[in-house]
Design a protein that fits this description.
2% of the residues lie in helices and 39% in strands. By secondary structure, the protein is an all-beta fold. It has 2 domains: 145 residues, no CATH class; 101 residues. The strands form 3 sheets. The chain has a 7-stranded mixed β-barrel with strand order 1-2-3-6-5-4-7. Strands 8-11-13-15-16-14 form a 6-stranded mixed beta sheet, with no helix packed on it. The termini are far apart. About 2% of the residues have low confidence.
């Protein structure tokens, strides 16, 4: 038996290796990417079955249960076109609103097929929804082997690794530019807003799959109005209106359960 020092160094792990102890008769093993020490990004979709579509590279729905690359050489692609339905009819479209830039897409040959050793790991640069499918801008991180048209593959979607050292209890001021309030959820859960002009729009970025945010609003000496995005849903269906008195203090609480597609909003007004 060779000494450990004489053995070849192991190859780099891809994160797609299945943990044998969790692999049952249905071959439902848990990939290494979903395990291990925290922090790590949440897995939104795990080993969904698809078929590789190399018959075209056009921006279009590849068809039910299919995924397509925008390059005839898949490893050189910059966009993936993924149908909303996996080949087992599972609808994964709810994940598109939650999937964050910086996350990952893993494509691997199916576990019960001859191309298991073929895989690709992509980092997401953009997420665009279309009718029946999504367009993911991607950058290749690592790969092995090559896919052929109609190959059975598995698709996994993973959120970015959380930023280390972020204190969610810090208070951050919301930046306002040309009437647009830009709220970056990666900064924490508490924000202040002191408008010096009417707020006409909102941009809420880096939304977690579920989170609650608290926003302290201080009215200007001149009464400013605040328009709410359509994604805000109010109790009873009536939107709140900020206080108009000079220096008035309101608190807006918003909660999402679907990655920011909708927010349940409550406005408490005129704190002493």
């Amino acid at each position: 038996m060779p000494k450990i020092s004489d053995m070849a160094a192991p190859a780099a792990l891809s994160g797609l290796e299945l943990i044998p102890g969790l692999q049952g008769a249905a071959n439902a093993g848990m990939p290494l990417l979903a395990l291990g020490a925290l922090p790590r990004g949440n897995v939104l979709q795990l080993r969904r079955p698809y078929a590789a579509d190399l018959s075209a590279t056009t921006d279009a729905d590849p068809g039910a249960g299919k995924l397509r690359w925008n390059n005839a050489a898949p490893a050189s692609a910059t966009v993936l076109y993924i149908d909303n339905a996996a080949s087992d009819t599972t609808d994964i479209s709810a994940s598109w609103a939650m999937l964050a830039v910086g996350g990952f897409v893993y494509v691997q040959g199916s576990a019960d097929g001859p191309h298991r050793a073929n895989w690709q790991k992509w980092q997401i640069t953009s997420v665009t929804t279309a009718t029946g499918y999504a367009k993911l801008g991607v950058s290749l991180q690592a790969s092995a082997g090559a896919f052929a048209d109609t190959d059975a593959v598995e698709l996994t979607l993973q959120q970015p690794t959380p930023s280390p050292g972020v204190d969610r209890n810090l208070v951050n001021a919301i930046a306002v530019t040309s009437g647009n309030a830009a709220l970056d959820c990666s900064l924490g859960d508490y924000f202040t807003l002191a408008p010096t002009a009417n707020i006409t729009g909102w941009t809420i970025s880096n939304v977690l799959p579920a989170c609650s945010l608290m926003i302290g609003i201080t009215q200007d000496t001149t009464a400013r109005t605040v328009a709410w995005p359509a994604s805000f849903k109010w109790a009873g269906g009536t939107a709140g209106a900020v206080s108009t008195a000079s220096g008035a203090k309101d608190v807006l609480a918003i909660t999402t359960f679907d990655g920011g597609a909708t927010w349940r909003a409550t406005l408490a007004k005129a704190f002493a």
